[in-house]
Write a structure and sequence with these properties.
- The protein has two domains: about 260 residues, NADP-dependent oxidoreductase domain (TIM Barrel); about 60 residues, no CATH class.
- The chain is built from 16 helices and ten strands.
- Helix 5 crosses helix 7 and helix 10 crosses helix 11.
- The longest helix has 16 residues.
- The chain is globular, with a radius of gyration of 19 Å.
- The structure holds iron/sulfur cluster (2 copies).
Amino acid sequence: MQYRRLRGTHLDLSRVAYGGLALYYQHPDAAIELINAAIDRGINYFDCDEAGNQFVPNLVYEDTRKKLGQVLKNRRNEVYVGIKCMFARADEVARDIDKALNFIVKGTSREIIDIFHFAHVDVDEKLDLLLSPDGGLAAAERAKQEGKIGSILIASHNPRVLMRALKTGRFDVAEFPFTIIEPEYLDDVIPYCADHNIGTIIMKPIGGGQLAQCASLSLRWIAQHDVDCIIPGMKSLEEIEQNITAVIEGGALSAEELSALTEISQHLGAEYCHRCGYCLPCPQGIHIISQFDIYKSTLFGIEKKQEIYRQMKARGTRTAADCIGCGQCVEKCPFKLPVPSLMERVERDLGGVSVP
Ligand code: SF4
Ligand code: SF4
């Protein structure tokens, strides 16, 4: 394994670290085995993700405690932890920090959240709220002074909003998706972070699974740029090994490899959601991005996706089934994705409604 200083922090992170979403969908025993194997292989950073629990207050951090928390009891000194917060108001953020501390790192040898994430800061309204005097960033800065958290990270799928945030000088680390399909972060975000000593963590390096057929090429393409840490989601020992080998030993892509990766990415591009959020809000209240995320994910098979989709509906969440085809999202989408027809496919394939 190689380690690299995460700029903006005092942490030396493994070049390949662990995207936690894959762990969320694992049985606790299997997840604990994977976490231990990853640490044995030199991975020293876990970027936690509660996925479906994220908005259910009494369940938030329950899954992470069950899995990573068990390992931390014995191996805390080998691991750094990133905790993902979806809130933006000061009171909610302060409560979330205390809850994560109590649930996950209390009783271990280092009672601190190493990297505290403001997740999904994709639209201006959320960033405005975070930065306001009553916003969550002030609460996180207080927690940092009190030693409850080590560093503050902003995660975004929208390079314009991310740049706005970074220019405040109040974030230590930036996390964003970066693949050959979404190279726009090379324009501003990556050079700005390098110039201003801001750490860079690359999420969704395999395009949320959509680049699975060329995962190693995608990881190598990312690793040849000036980024600190890459966090693929890994659901088996084989994937852990393959990803580490690709990043550490793969080297820069040859001309032939680059052309193969480019061809695959161009093919995906017409339907590739960049999760930038420009299409939101949808007048029907559909979180368009999450519908695509479930539909396109390769973390689990169709039956599991259908189960997750059913659970969303049962909780009253607006889904692709509520799309009325108004087309407002298409007008706002910079990539002109055919969202209404994609929503129809999501409902047909996950909702079980047969469309002739
Ligand atoms: S077409 Fe469907 S998803 Fe798009 S804005 Fe209208 S209702 Fe929402
Ligand atoms: S549908 Fe378009 S605007 Fe909406 S998140 Fe995806 S890429 Fe961005």
